[in-house]
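Entry:
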Amino acid sequence: MIRKIVPGVSAVAYFTLSLIGVCETAPQSKPLPPGDLRAETGFYSLVFYYAPDPATEVRALAEKLVQEYLPGVPISTDATNPPRAPFVGFLEEMAPLKTYPVPDAGYFEHAGHGLSAKDAETMQKTSRATRLVFVMPKDDAWAKGRSFSELAFEFARQSGAYIWDSATRECFSTVAWKERRVDSWPAKGIPEIPNQITIHLYRPDDSSPYLRAITLGMEKFALPDVVIDQLTRSDSASSGSVINLVCQSLAERPKLTSGTREIFRIPDISSKSVRDRLSQDLKSGAKLEIPLALVEGRELEGDPKNHLVELDFRHGEGRTVAEKRNSLLSALWGATDSVQDTTHTPEVLAASARAKARLPELAKLFVAGLPPGSRLMLKAPFKRDDNGGNEWMWVEVMRWPESGPVEGILKNDPFYISTLRAGARVEVKAADIFDYLFYRKDGSREGNETGDLISKQSGRVREK
């Protein structure tokens, strides 16, 4: 699925406009060699929109603020012959905007910070777009990068502008910019990287049952953006946390010791706030570290024009990509699974019948495309090794054809089946489905009435 084209300049070249628009057991890619992952320069591109006119003369304001926050750094308006880094570039386009068009108001619902509906409406009437770029040597990314972020805040505050970050494709009010991009950045040192970047989660094409996660914004720090391929919807939260762990680690230590097996440890993170955030909600057995291979990422339409590094979970246990990833994530954050001896009472069977009656509607909903942030799980039976009946487990739906079995990813580690593990690709006959769980994007859920009834039974519960 092609991502929406939005205004922005997310490239290494000065004043260049960037247009934004699986195989389950894929062969292993070649790991990156040891060494410094950074590019020679970091690159910021910010576009300022007004409400609808600037409150002051913006060219003079930009020159004054560059002298104040980046003394000695030249400011240039010559896109064809820019000075050597570090430098600030200044460019303006008067309405009607064609190079830097304002996104439609609906875009700001998911990519706007601190913006009201009135702000989004006012922005559409802006009389101009002012673009500031900042190019600096990689070793200046932290000190000068923070100064430029402060400069951007003051420029927006004094001119009455909204700030569009071309790298992350987000728009900020001045208050939101200061909170996320300045206040979380120590006066000296490395910021909280999760506040400086964003992660896009999307289907790479309409036929793929998997999702792809990619960061946007690491180019500002001369670092590569990070990719994870072949995700399920239920993987998104834990995988996003792994991406944040890797990005913060690379910011603090950009030199790889071994691209084949690079170990990322939460306790090694210098930023206490990021370290604490990554340590929340740990479960039993959490190792707080994960071994990953780092390989060259493939660029798809809509990706940032930046070096891409893909996280490879080859060091996990299992046969498929999903099984290997699940085993490593479970070890990193910890995991628990349990099984309960149950009785299918008339009350439980009646609840199951109600769930089955809902399945045709759920199938139509899934085929039409689940809303972002939602996912669908089915409870189904799997034959135990000991011929003791079935073990009932949850399966995340990946494909629901008109005929034939439902295809999905097993979400439980079995107790009584040696040939299966969480992350396995499985098939479920529609007639065997016992219940469902539909997680909505707002965090609410529907279904699993049988589970609620079974949890009240007194059957033996064992944890794994």
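DSSP finds eleven helices and 23 strands in the chain.
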